[in-house]
Amino acid sequence: MDVAETQEQWRRALPGTTPARMTGAQILWEVLAREGVEVVFGYPGGAIMPAYDALPASRIHHVLVRHEQGAAHMADGYARASGKVGVCVATSGPGATNLVTGIATAMLDSSPIVCITGQVSSALLGSDAFQEIDITGITLPITKHNYVVTRAEELADTLREAFEVARSGRPGPVLVDITKDAQQGTAPFRWSDEPVRLPGVRPVHRLGQEQIERAAGLIDQARRPLILCGHGVIKAGASEQLLRFAEKAGIPVASTLLGLGAFPASHPLSLGMMGMHGEAWVNQAVQESDLLIAAGMRFDDRVTGNLKNFAVTARKIHLEIDPAEVNKNVKADVALIGDVRRSLERLTPAVKPREHGEWLTRIAEFRGDSASRDVQGIPHEGRLRAPHVLHDLWRLTRGEALVVTDVGQHQMWEAQYYRHERPRSLITSGGLGTMGFALPAAMGARFARPADEIWVVAGDGGFQMTACELITCAQEGIKVNVALINNGYLGMVRQWQEFFYGGRYVATPLKSPDFVKLVEAHGLTALRVTRREEIPAAVETARNAPGTAVIEFCVEGEEAVYPMVPANADLHAMIRRPSRIEESIDEP
Amino acid sequence: MSHDSAFAPTGRRIARTFIVHVEDRPGTLNRVVSLFRRRGFNIDSLTVGRTERAGVSRITLVVQSDEDTAQRLEANLYKLVNVLEVHDVTHSPAVSREMAFVKVRAGAERRGEILQLCETFRARVVDVAPESLTAEITGTPEKLDGLIELLRPFGIAEMVRTGAVAMARGAATQGAAGASEGELAA
Fold first, then answer.
1. Residue at A440 is within a domain
2. Which of B6, B76, B80 sits opposite A200 (nearest CB)?
3. Is residue B120 within 8 Å of residue B90, measured between CB atoms?
4. Which one-letter DSSP state was computed for residue A478?
């Protein structure tokens, strides 16, 4: 079927005309286009070939990845950067299983993506046919929901439902597995603008005035209140509402890793990140508070440390969209279940204007102590330390870049030293902690934010996991800048070995290729920086390069991330940076 | 369901009974069971069957849990797209029944004794063979436990229990008909 003929069929599928018969493959792209999808990330193969054959006739741009994991991360990055649903495509069998890490990453961070997989023909299902795998069974616990479609007739409704499930309530990944015969078969295509009806999905609004008043009562009485701001604030688009609430009630704001950017870092009430590598003063404030107002966060173990001794003197108000998260890890005195934005809109008028001068002074005292230990105060003598790199990158980009981080030490230094002012200015894998996430996620983000400056921050370990996507950048003309923090180790694991495993560096020293040569072999711009003085010029060169540019920062090998709350230790029991830093990180 | 029972006493694990209405679609039971496995909830019994409404199945679940866990279980069940309604009937007036077949080793000499026990428990004898006897019993899970304990000394050759099914007493319904139209349209 040629392009003109296909387009003619679509025209006839408009409401009010006789429904045109279309193949499942055509229906797939048509539904995606009507759902607002402009770009998909994928990799073809046998069972998805009918769909690919119909792709050129659609308005959708396809990005050919080099590994399906990258496709899922790109869809995820697109979703996080835009707030819309991201889409990836893979074939059956190994194509589908390669998506798994990316799907789980999206699940743990509640990112709305729709994954389309090809499947063997329905007659072969269950026969262990070539490249047949039970991908809906495999992804059952890591998707919000998934579907198998065996008939073209079911495809349009199922896909619409998939998008609705992915973006509604607490968002998450949805997988639609489409058999080859469902792609090849034909069905009348009808499109309805009616909302999708999902009898099993309940809208969450159970917020009674009584709960608002109980919450407001606790807030008015509190002497040492603290807001804990999470990813949900960003997802709900509730940053402004949070700002108004915090300013009116005079309450300082601590953030989870994924909540960074939801509240402006430069605001006087902003404390910064809490948790395992959170600022010491923030964790101290959490432990001394008498009221925690948790907004769109789920008390993850990396945030609370040992639950038994977590904020024992504080009462807790939990603003949360997912009822299953309430009382899971931390018992809430008042739970405000529902969209965080609406909850804050109800709560703000109910509280009294306050200033907590004494409490803020107390927190400032903790902060002063931490500042004296900060790596920024240490003369660099030309040597390159990763925290310096992140600090300088923040200054040179005026804090305005969209930063996408990988997982490990550099991720924590970014969180500590790059100060985020706006929501959706940091994208990182928090829940699953997926190494290799950053480069593909940033590539997906590029399609959502064509005009923004985007920086990938990755370590030498994680970068090598998905570096194959560099050539996708070249093929697609995708421009992202990469700050590759090379310390020659799997740094975070090495740090744990240093602290908790007697300094035995097992399987953490890491040999890398010559990154400059590697990147140049892809026809992209590469630079190497070994001294702090070289940073500004290198950053400028990278920004001005027409395509993707990678700067390899050769940093101190055995730097550690401070402070640190050891796993399952009390939040205030932090390992602090030794005051004479040179003793601890001298080179051998 | 209520989620602000923050001050309710917790920690006491008891057998809780849930009635769950689900869409009758491929894989739905798998999703429910997978949820329990993944979250570490312990299933005592699970029964599933059709309801008065086409396309809707009814699951009766008995789970050992405390109050907090029960609430999270309910909330997690609701997160499954194919789950329509969840009712915790543990503390509601409800009837609960289970059925069992028990095959007891019994020669002619002890048969009388066993028949007497069966009569006391209103169990029906459904098969008699020279060396065995099979009883069918319906009742609360506790009643079944009672008979089984008494039969154990005779030697139980084989046993099968259905798991409990439950229904609210009186006019109150947890029926499938209300499961999607009324409340969800609002």
1. yes
2. B80
3. no
4. -
For residues B52-61, give the mean pLDDT: 94
Give domain status of residue A331, yes or no. Answer: yes
- Average confidence (pLDDT) over A23-41: 97
**What residues of B are in contact with residue A140 (Cβ under 8 Å)?**
27, 30-31, 34
Q: What are phi and psi of A575, to 5 degrees?
A: -85, 120
pTM of the complete model: 0.91
CATH number of the domain to which A310 belongs: 3.40.50.1220
Amino acid at A280: A
Q: Are residues A46 and A184 in the same domain?
A: yes
Contact between chains at B68 and A327 (C-beta distance less than 8 A): yes
Q: Provide the number of structural domains found in chain A.
A: 3
Q: Look at A335 and B184 and tell me if their CB atoms are within 8 Å.
A: no
Contact partners, residue A207, CB within 8 Å, separation at least 6: A336, A337, A338, A342, A343, A346
Domain boundaries defined on chain B: 1-92, 95-165
Domain B95-165 in the same topology as domain B1-92? yes
pLDDT band at A513 (very low <50, low <70, confident <90, very high): very high
Catalytic residues of A: 68, 130-131, 180, 492
- pLDDT tens, position by position, A332-389: 999 999 999 999 999 999 999 999 999 999 999 888 777 666 777 666 677 899 999 9
Tell me which amino acid residue B112 is: G
- What average pLDDT does range A501-508 have in this prediction? 97
Q: Tell which CATH architecture fits domain B95-165.
A: 2-Layer Sandwich (3.30)
In the CATH scheme, what is the homologous superfamily, with its name and number, of domain B1-92? ACT domain (3.30.70.260)
Would an 8 Å CB–CB cutoff place B68 in contact with chain A?
A: yes
Chain segment B111-158, per-residue pLDDT in tens: 999 999 999 999 999 999 999 999 999 999 999 999 999 999 999 999
Residues A343 and A397 occupy one common structural domain: no
- β-bridge pairing B14-23 and B83-88: antiparallel
pLDDT for the residue numbered A371: 64
User: How many angstroms separate the first and last alpha carbons of chain A?
Assistant: 68
**Residue A280 has what pLDDT?**
87
Q: Does residue A437 lie within any of the structural domains?
A: yes
Quote the ipTM score: 0.86
Sole residue written with tokens 């993850």: A300
Instruction: Give yes or no: residues A285 and A418 share one domain.
Output: no
Domain CATH for A511: 3.40.50.970
Are B81 and A211 in contact (CB < 8 Å)? no
In a domain, A486, yes or no: yes
Cβ separation B68–A141 shorter than 8 A: no
pLDDT digit string (tens) for A533-550? 999 999 999 999 999 999
- Per-residue model confidence (pLDDT) at position A577: 80
Cα A307 to Cα A207, A298, A299, B70: the distances in Å are 27, 13, 9, 20
Q: Are the beta carbons of A327 and B6 separated by less than 8 Å? A: yes
At residue B176, the pLDDT reads 64
One domain for residues A473 and A506: yes
Q: Chain A contacts of B71, Cβ < 8 Å?
A: 327
User: Looking at the predicted structure, is the pLDDT value of residue B181 above 80?
Assistant: no
Percent of chain B with pLDDT over 90: 65
Q: Are A354 and A418 within one domain? A: no
Same domain, A492 and A352: no
Residue A306: domain span:
209-367
Q: Taking Cα atoms as reference points, which of A327, A208, A301, A330 lies closest to residue B73?
A: A327
Q: Which residues contact B182 (CB under 8 A, 6 or more apart)?
A: none
Distance, in angstroms, between B69 CA and closest chain A CA?
8
- What residues form DSSP beta bridges with A575? A564
Closest residue to B75, CB basis, from A324, A332, A333:
A324
